[in-house]
Amino acid sequence: MKSCIRRIGATMLLGIFVLPALAPSVQSQTHPWWFYGCPKGVAAQIPGDVPGPGTPGWTQYQSCLQQNLSASPQQSAQIAPILAHEGQKVMAIRNNNSLSNVQKTQEATSLQKQSDPQLKAILSSAQYDKLQVVRYQAVRWITQKRLGWQ
């Protein structure tokens, strides 16, 4: 009987302490900056925050755009305000619980189309294509279930 209780106790301890460490984190979703060209971990990120001009993360955001889109410092300086403004609106769309997922997707896509002419004028076609990939992921992120910090 004692050995049975010990086995049950050992199994419970294993389940409580070891298995969670081996399982992937539930909060492994990317931060909002990521979907505008900055992968998780490249720049210090605050969940739910998109940097604005003059904020502490602004310089890091610009350098991250340079690195991930192969943009020049001049291009980065031109597109960062556009993308930051777009990112803030995407956050507002995501947090608007009165919209359905379809409406959120439509609004985000429409918002991105409004910025397209400005971005196409600044970026090369290859750079724009890289940005489109992460913007598409932003639209998908809007409708994902929220986990942890989100």
User: Which runs of at least 5 residues are low in confidence (pLDDT < 50)?
Assistant: 18-35, 44-48
Largest sheet: none
Strand portion, in percent?
under 5%
Number of strands: 0
Report, as a whole number of angstroms, the end-to-end distance: 47 Å
Q: Number of helical segments?
A: 5
Mean pLDDT: 74
Decide which structural class fits the backbone: mainly alpha
Radius of gyration: 21 Å
Quick summary:
Helix content is 64%, strand content 0%. By secondary structure, it is mainly α. 24% of the residues are buried.
What would you say this structure looks like, in words?
- The protein is mainly alpha-helical.
- It is 64% helix and 0% strand.
- It has five helices and no strands.
- It has helices at residues 2-22, 58-69, 73-95, 101-122, 125-142.
- Helix 3 (73-95) runs parallel beside helix 5 (125-142).
- Mean pLDDT is 74; it is low at 18-35 and 44-48.
